[in-house]
Design goal:
Layout: E1 2-10, H1 11-21, H2 34-49, E2 54-58, H3 65-70, H4 83-86, H5 89-98, E3 102-104, H6 111-121, E4 125-130, E5 144-149, E6 155-158, H7 160-167, H8 174-181, E7 182-183, E8 188-189, H9 196-206, H10 209-214, H11 222-230, H12 232-242, H13 266-275, H14 279-289, H15 313-320
Parallel strand pairs: 1-2, 1-4, 2-3, 4-5
Antiparallel strand pairs: 5-6, 7-8
Helix pairs in contact: 1-2, 2-5, 2-14, 2-15, 5-13, 8-9, 8-12, 13-14
């Protein structure tokens, strides 16, 4: 196995996490900056603790066509992105690139599918996936693991044993499990009467849902057997919705260069921090990259001091507690 690990970040999951963790932060003229601030803290921590880490920030782009065809109401229960977050997305994308990370997206693909495809593309590398999405648990194996953040700012590694402990089944059974219990976050209704414990028990008994449906006569409870019989079609659709698509988009070829990190552009990072009035971020950049070179005295566009930045101490502290690897 290649000794160079690859980090894949579920970008929008991390963006939303920071958006909700840091509130009421904006420039003097009212432009929201809380998500930018949180993402910059995350990127700075990655740089300080893992300066040579390769990887990519993976983004959703557009609607997943094949899932929408299967279920037009897929994720229909999710509210639209708040306007105060939407205006920060272009700045966050600039930041990711300025820190030297690859930004990977493809029209009509969800980040989970692209992450699964990238993990499969590099079979010789250890893969770390920064996400709390339970769907990704289905691709965990001896070299692929998750880094799951929690509200306290800590990060827990989720490997094969952790999946078994959390769900009561192996990673290879997660897709069947999700198809049985459903996923309210994605507006996927499960099989009526089948909750997490029942689903895990069935999969432990039969090994797979395919084998279970082939031997329904061995399901002891009559009412459960009838519900499973009536839900065959629903289960088949659910399985197509929850199973990650690990085939690269047509015409896409990923190489190690696709996930190779370059040196951060601290001049660009400073410019963004100044534009967004993030004074405490500027201090952190100085601590890492050294003070900014003085500007010529005749520079008509010298940076003017902006109003003091509110200090979201609790959110900032939680960001610094994360131990990624």
């Amino acid at each position: 196995m290649n000794d160079t690990p690859i980090l894949l970040v579920d970008s929008y999951a991390q963006i939303y996490r920071g958006f909700h963790a840091v509130r009421y932060l904006s420039t003097p003229d009212g432009v929201p900056t809380n998500a930018v601030f949180a993402m910059t803290k995350f990127l700075l921590k990655l740089h300080r603790e893992h300066p040579s880490q390769n990887g990519a920030f993976v983004f959703d782009k557009g609607k997943p066509a094949f899932r929408m065809e299967l279920a037009p109401d897929y994720k229909a229960n999710r509210p639209p992105m708040p306007d105060e977050l939407k205006v920060q997305i272009p700045v966050i994308r600039e930041l990711v690139r300025a820190f030297g990370w690859s930004l990977i997206e493809h029209e009509g693909y969800e980040a989970d599918d692209l992450i699964a495809s990238l993990a499969k593309t590099f079979p010789q590398n250890q893969i770390f996936i920064f996400s709390g999405d339970k769907d990704i648990s289905q691709i965990i194996d001896s070299r692929v693991s998750m880094l799951v953040p929690n509200p306290a700012g800590d990060v827990a590694k989720r490997g094969i044993e952790e999946v078994k402990e959390k769900f009561g089944i192996a990673p290879g059974q997660i897709a069947d499990y999700l198809a049985l219990v459903g996923d309210t976050a994605d507006n996927i209704p499960g099989v009526p009467g089948v909750g997490p414990k029942t689903a895990a028990a069935l999969l432990n008994q039969f090994g797979s849902a395919e084998n279970m449906f082939a031997h329904l006569d061995e399901v002891k409870r009559d009412t459960l057997r009838k519900k499973l019989e009536d839900a065959k079609d629903r289960f088949a659709t659910n399985l197509k919705l929850v199973r990650l698509d690990d085939v690269p988009p047509e015409g896409t070829v990923w190489t190690l260069d696709s996930v190779r990190r370059t040196e951060p552009d601290f001049a660009a990072i400073r410019a963004i921090a100044k534009k967004m009035s993030l004074k405490s971020i500027l201090k952190e950049i100085d601590a890492i990259a050294g003070p900014e070179p003085p500007e010529p005295e005749n520079d008509l566009f010298a940076f003017a001091e902006s109003a003091p930045e509110p200090e979201p101490e609790k959110a900032s502290d939680s960001m610094t507690q994360m131990d990624l690897f």
